[in-house]
Amino acid sequence: MLQQQQEPQQPQFASASTGPLADKAQVAAEEAIKAAEEAARMAEAVLNGTASPEEAIQAAKIAAQKAQEASLAAKQAAEALPDSMAPFKEGILQASANVTEAAQKAAQAANNASTITPESLNAAATAMNDSAIATEKAFTALLSAVQQNTTAPFDPNLEGFVSSAAENAAQTANKSITAVEKAAASLTANTTEEANRLSNEAINSVNDTNNSTNQTLESASNILSMKSPAEISATATAAAAAAKIASNAAAAAAATAATVASASTGPLADKAQVAAEEAIKAAEEAARMAEAVLNGTASPEEAIQAAKIAAQKAQEASLAAKQAAEALPESMAPFRERILQASANVTEAAQKAAQAANNASTITPESLNAAATAMNDSAIATEKAFTALLSAVQQNTTAPFDPNLEGFVSSAAENAAQTANKSITAVEKAAASLTANTTEEANRLSNEAINSVKDTNNSTNQTLESASNILSMKSPAEISATASVAAAAANIASNAAAAAAATAATVASASTGPLADKAQVAAEEAIKAAEEAARMAEAVLNGTASPEEAIQAAKIAAQKAQEASLAAKQAAEALPDSMAPFKEGIFQASANVTEAAQKAAQAANNASTITPESLNASAAAMKVSAIAAEKSLTALLSAVQQNMTVPLDPKIEGFVSSVAENAAQSANKSITAVEKAAASLTANTTEEANRLSNEAINSVKDANNSTNQTIESAANILSTKSSAEIRAARAAAAAAASVASSAATTAGATAATVASASTGPLADKAQVAAAEAIKAAEEAAKTAEAVLNGTVPPEEAIQAAQIASQKAQEASLAAKQAAEALPDSMAPFTEYILEASANATEAALKAARQQTMYLQ
Fold this sequence. Notes:
26 helices, 856 residues, mainly alpha, single chain
């Protein structure tokens, strides 16, 4: 009836080391657990009568023998461990010594149990108790060894298995010892009834050990089937590396699909974009799981699964890219061919990544080397895919790509290559660790493998970041629309600012005082802002400025337009009632300009968002701004034409008309550009999108020319003379003409007098000069009156003055020459004439100097 106490097999110490002694320990462990299972089976069999007690005793002896052999193998393998594992080694040596004692006492118990006497059974119980105590010590030492091991990772379940084996072995031992003690007592019972009772209790007690014995064996068997630290490390390394390689393939697929999606329109482009987003999401998850499996927060199986999903999403994105590329127009043939090449490479990379993940699921040197080979093939295909993608981007001349795209593709390629190289190295080292000759070498290779794959974290993240940036970039249609709309918004705001500057400058020229000065300054700032907005409109189209800069310039121009409009209104309010018609026209122009500026600002804000809805809203705001600007210039022209109170520069009308005409042309072309840009975003085909984008760009370029003409005319208004300057110019010109007329009159009279008192050629010459001087004097006097009433410009009066001065000098000279020819008898007269001639010459020269001063 006695169930023999079997020793649980020494747990798989061999998992912590490599080499012949480790292999020997593994074999001994397997033989010991097999013997333990047989002893347990025979214990049950002898109780149910299917085996003899002798067979059970023999099984117990064999189990005890195998326990000692396993203990010795463990001791020898532990002694070969490196010094770096000293705490673990000491724990194993202690456990081995305890197991040896437990096995020896178990053998002694079996021997004692062969003789059925009270004495022999009590001796068996004592030996069993000693064996149980030694077994418990062995498990305690083993548990301590596992807990102190920091050199290589054990299966996290190992501690639990050791604890379970210890606990259940203790239960088995206690009940088995009790059974033997009761069996011994039954032999000396005083009555048959007592003997039967004790015998039954002994049988029941040993029957009660069945469950704990099986649990002990199960826990010990689990320890044997656990992966070694090298296998655990290799499992994590291979899973992480497989996830990294698959992440690379998915990132390349996402970049390829996103690039072709951004360069085209329609359902296939949309499908490619969605597939790209799913691929990058799977790539990110695979990368996350790769890190998680290395830090123990995810299992290798989860990382392998993430790798497989990433590889699958990579293939789907690759197919979507291929289908979208095949639908591209012939005009994009070079780009299309490169995308098709990239797609083919990505497909191969994804397939090889999936193969690597499958191989990485089995931890043997052969499977890991196969995984490394597949990873290498995947890495080469990924590199080819990025090369083809980069070539596609560089060869595309049909529509503009984001200038950062090339850099993102290059960065993704470079970092993916770094990740692949280190991941492959990690798997190769993991494979080598499984066949290392020494534990020390195995630990070193395992650690190097883990570190190698950990070193890929940064490059993997950089690959994903670059690929994600490609997904978030604007499409060529969006890029073109962004530039077109920003330039158009700048043109519209520039027009508003030019109209505001013209209005403020006009009212400033018609008045004086602080408000007029303020209006003039505001006009100058508005025209400067208009010029900057126009410059940015051109710059954003030729790539020397960003759309954001053009939008900002538009907003500033709109703001300066409103400030100039307000300054014009305030200056107009200060005008006298005698200028009421002019004032009302300025008020109307100011109100319209304010509206034009506000709508220009609204258009600029809408232009900051590139969607069909926002662009159409921008175009609508531009239309309102253009209409308001046109109304303002019409009102300004009417104000100028109705002004009868103060003189304005006569060129202003022409300048205002030119501003109005060119601003209207600029607005129409800018609005058309925005409408075409909006339409390009919803085009049914890539060809149509490209056509609309090109037309939008060309339209806004044409608008730029009109905008520049608008600004030039408005700037001319700022440079015209004010009414005060005009009055001063008229007065100065009239005075110069009057002075010259007086000088010419005096000279003419002098020449005529001497001519009448003499005869001969000199007298005739004096007579002619006198007539010309008088005629020039009359003309100068007439223009002096005309310039004052505004019927001739100051320039004509100055011209008449110059002629009169010249004729005065000629007449004075002719009078002098004629007087010098008079006879001595006329000496007093001659002297008078000479003096008069000199005075006339001086008067003419002074008049000429006055004219020169005016001109300066």
